[in-house]
Amino acid sequence: MTNEVLLDFNNVTMQFGGVTALSEVSVKIFRGEILGLIGPNGAGKTTCFNVMTGVYQPTQGTVMFNGSDITKLKRYEITQSGIARTFQNIRLFSEMTAVENVMVGADARKTSSIPASLLRTKRQRTEEKESYDRSMELLALMGIADRASDAARNLPYGYQRRLEIARALATEPELLCLDEPAAGFNPAEKQELNELILKIRDQGYTVLLIEHDMNVVMKISDRVTVLDFGRKIAEGLPQEVRENPDVIAAYLGVPDDAA
Amino acid sequence: MSQLLILWKRFYSLFAGVQAHWKSMSRVQRLSGYALAVLALYLAPWWPKIPGIGWLVNTPGTQFSTVLNDQVIIFVLVALGLNVVVGLAGLLDLGYVGFYAVGAYVVGVLTSQHASLPWIVALPIAVLVSMLVGVILGTPTLRLRGDYLAIVTLGFGEIIRISAKNLDWLGASRGISDIGKPPSIGPLKFGVIDPKPYYWLGLTLVFLVVFCLYRLEESRVGRAWTAIREDEDAAELMGVNTFKFKLWAFAIGAAVGGLAGAHYAGKVGFISPDNFPLQLSILFLAAVVLGGSGNMPGAILGGIMVAWLPERFRNFTDKRVLVFGIALVLVMVFRPEGLLPRRVRTKTAMRTSSDGKEVAQ
């Protein structure tokens, strides 16, 4: 982890009609860290993701990535500039094979379009091979290469989750946003996933992690940011956050007599 | 009904047996198999003369090779083009006849109405103009999704037809006659009486289109289209420029539709707005869905069925539409994904499993 700010989520407010999902939230992500983003259900974690990746345009505030403003960029442009994500509800291309799913991600860095594909130019063939090789490599990294040619929808749940991560990594991101990657995992699988995320971080990726499971977040995050009702209520090292009374209140509620 | 099902299963296991045998053959054997199949297709005009099974394919009341060209080739071409739009990219287009009409009208205008270019020169222009119309229509409308897109395209098909009907420049409801014919190649004369040369030309166009579309399908472009069909939002978040690729799908579909129209105009020599009714759009779509949306062999088979079945049962007169309708319903009940549903492509699988060595395409 360095002191270089990779993503600066600056004073972002996101309103849907009368509902304020995010209210003046500022988060900085440093290059090379794992930042855990936690909060009770409905706290605005996924909305945060959606603003960062261009799904929503914030009502107010800016998102700076690598020093440039990406607030107004189109979604695919944000991906191409180096942010990739997974989805809370798995959203794979279910009729495509696992490796093809990953190749779609890898294609984000390629340029050959219709004419090159029609003519099968040398560059197009090189790009195809690169996409394929890189995708197989990523499947191997995620430990799911044995089912590379199965349709995504036929993969077991754990494989699908990991396939989503592989697909996101294939876009060669600098920042990888994982939206509850451990949802539905048993403790052993969570342990494996932890190791995997650490491995990804060690390869030079910066990771933003939304997670409900405190064990996962506290174990692997370098820093933790806590949201509640669309506001940032705490930020810091896992240990500090764990002992923060506001965080405890948000998760466990405040006893009546104390209120 | 259950007997029918048993029959189908028997047929299917026979088919699977042939398929397994096919896979066990050597490369040379397979290549010669392909060559024979291609030859058989070029000889299709004589199929009804085959003793024993000829009656099965024959079309009473209409010359078989006329049906082959004017119906089957046209529907196969159109189904191939529409399959890119509907089957691969998942964009429901109910006005596809519009592009077909544009192709036909461009040839009509350039070879007869306002100029007298040869057909062969008008053909590429027709394809390009159709493509351009696809882009012009796609640019504003591809921001819409699903049902909305379907309604807009439905309107487009009608706009083209009604414009043609009302513009004197396009011959209004009189249409355009004396449209140029393809140039003779040696002994092959593209005349009025013998439809066979047109069929051979059309079949060649089909092979050309299949070749091009196959290359697109098996590339970054094909993957982008499929990803858009499966989940447009996820595709965009994975870096696919969805608008650009949807527009390409539209443009390429339009180009193939225009090609079919140009071929049709060259053959019949006369077009009028009545040749391009809304019903044709529906039939085109039926061909793709019936055959197997998103699967090229499926689209081809669908095109053949929708074109040939009504002609096969022409002597049922009025009831043939009923028979055709029942056939469609039965297919949709028993094969909801079409006669040849798309399968997850196993090409990438083969590349790895054969000997672990990766083969560049």
Brief sketch in words of this structure:
The complex is a heterodimer of chains A (259) and B (361). In chain A, 39% of the residues lie in helices and 24% in strands.
Set down the secondary structure blueprint.
The complex is a heterodimer of chains A (259) and B (361).
Chain A: E1 5-16, E2 19-30, E3 34-38, H1 45-52, E4 60-65, E5 68-69, H2 75-81, E6 83-85, H3 98-107, H4 114-119, H5 122-141, H6 157-170, E7 175-179, H7 187-202, E8 206-210, H8 214-220, E9 223-228, E10 231-236, H9 238-243, H10 245-252
Parallel strand pairs in A: 3-8, 3-9, 6-7, 7-8
Antiparallel strand pairs in A: 1-2, 1-4, 4-5, 9-10
Chain B: H1 2-24, H2 27-42, H3 54-57, H4 64-88, H5 97-113, H6 119-141, H7 146-166, H8 196-217, H9 220-230, H10 232-237, H11 242-268, H12 278-291, H13 296-312, H14 319-334, H15 347-353
Helix pairs in contact in B: 4-8, 4-11, 4-12, 4-13, 5-6, 5-7, 5-11, 6-11, 9-11, 12-13
Describe this structure in words.
- Chain A: Residues 7-254 form the ABC transporter domain.
- The complex is a heterodimer of chains A (259) and B (361).
- Chain A has 259 residues and is of the alpha/beta class.
- Chain A has two domains: 1-82 and 173-259, P-loop containing nucleotide triphosphate hydrolases (Rossmann fold, 3-Layer(aba) Sandwich), CATH 3.40.50; 92-156 and 164-172, no CATH class.
- Helices cover 39% and strands 24% of the residues of chain A.
- Chain A contains ten helices and ten strands.
- Chain A has a six-stranded mixed β-sheet, sandwiched between helices. In chain A, strands 2-1-4-5 form a four-stranded antiparallel β-sheet, covered by helices on one side.
- In chain A, helix 7 links the parallel strand 7 (175-179) and strand 8.
- Chain A starts with a strand and ends in a 7-residue tail after the last helix.
- Chain B has 361 residues and is an all-alpha fold.
- Chain B has a domain at 70-277.
- Chain B has helices at residues 2-24, 27-42, 54-57, 64-88, 97-113, 119-141, 146-166, 196-217, 220-230, 232-237, 242-268, 278-291, 296-312, 319-334, 347-353.
- The radius of gyration of chain B is 21 Å and the shape is globular.
- Chain B starts with a helix and ends in an 8-residue tail after the last helix.
- Classes of the chains: A alpha/beta (259), B mainly alpha (361).
- The interface between A and B is large, with 49 and 37 residues.
